[in-house]
């Protein structure tokens, strides 16, 4: 099936569901920049393989909004796909929302898959279009039904690093995040971003090329920590290690259902690193605190072991450059 054929199928699905515009972000449920094969939706739909961009499809126009890093690449890869390059003026800005506001009339329907859009992006789209009486639905997946032989989620094993390698134990990292939650008087925390999960639990994986991360979520409160990760990704020894560190293990697919039944009074989520579907699943009785993940700031401060790793890596890098 060509990219034009895929575009035609999306438009047919839009027509049958009364959707006037469909947005496809370059992301996954963890709001990653670099993606596992299953979530390379923009590449599958349009042929564009850059790490940043957004597709917007209407019945008479299909565009890729991306920044200056990819202008040459996009022009080449979009040729014959039915998509046109729209050059972003500001990197990372949702300028397509303003375009939709000018293009569509009152009562129009705009949709996207909330598993692929960050809360921040979803809020920007809604805040731009709703005052114009344009309806926005963040729970529409048009791709799964037409994407034949879509890649499955990676099954490669994840593994744990010990404190000798990381310079800080999982227990102390959990305690540091809990201390920040206590200071902000927030009962719980949900983490979607894979680099934060990797740092917090000293866990590594091979689910994304060139990124040592494992697809997973973490729920954290003062009483418990739950790692949502695919069954079979961890060895029984690693599961015992995590259990001994106060971390429960649950299946990856249970994360969304768990969020729907959270009983805490408040929860901290990072709007830039949490997908809209997670946010919208949180019960209305739970107060949502939107802040940067505490682990993001904590991991920015390197301990002595990490600094030694950086120094050694720079030596290796210098040797490689010299040999080149």
Please identify the structural class as seen in this structure.
alpha/beta
- DSSP strand (E) fraction? 15-25%
What Rg do the Cα atoms give? 21 Å
Individual helix count: 13
* Helix fraction by DSSP (H/I, runs of at least 4): 25-40%
Average per-residue pLDDT, rounded, comes to: 96
Query: Biggest sheet, open or closed, and with what strands and sense?
Result: 6 strands, mixed
Shape: globular
Poorly predicted segments = none
Biggest sheet, strands in spatial order? 4-3-2-1-5-6
Order of helices and strands: HEHEEHEHEHEEHHEHEEEHEHEHEHH
Euclidean distance between termini CA atoms: 42 Å
Beta strands, count: 14
Secondary structure blueprint with pairings:
Elements (H helix, E strand, L loop, with lengths): L2 H14 L4 E5 L15 H6 L7 E4 L4 E5 L4 H7 L6 E4 L7 H9 L5 E4 L6 H11 L5 E3 L21 E2 L2 H4 L3 H14 L4 E4 L2 H8 L1 E2 L11 E6 L3 E5 L6 H9 L2 E4 L4 H6 L5 E4 L6 H6 L5 E4 L3 H5 L5 H20 L1
Parallel strand pairs: 1-5, 3-4, 5-6, 8-13, 11-12, 13-14
Antiparallel strand pairs: 1-2, 2-3, 7-9, 8-10, 10-11
Account of the 3D structure:
- The chain has 324 residues and is α/β, with parallel strands linked by helices.
- It has helices at 3-16, 41-46, 71-77, 95-103, 119-129, 163-166, 170-183, 194-201, 236-244, 255-260, 276-281, 294-298, 304-323; strands at residues 21-25, 54-57, 62-66, 84-87, 109-112, 135-137, 159-160, 188-191, 203-204, 216-221, 225-229, 247-250, 266-269, 287-290.
- The longest helix has 20 residues, at 304-323.
- The mean pLDDT is 96.
- Helix 4 (95-103) runs parallel beside helix 5 (119-129).
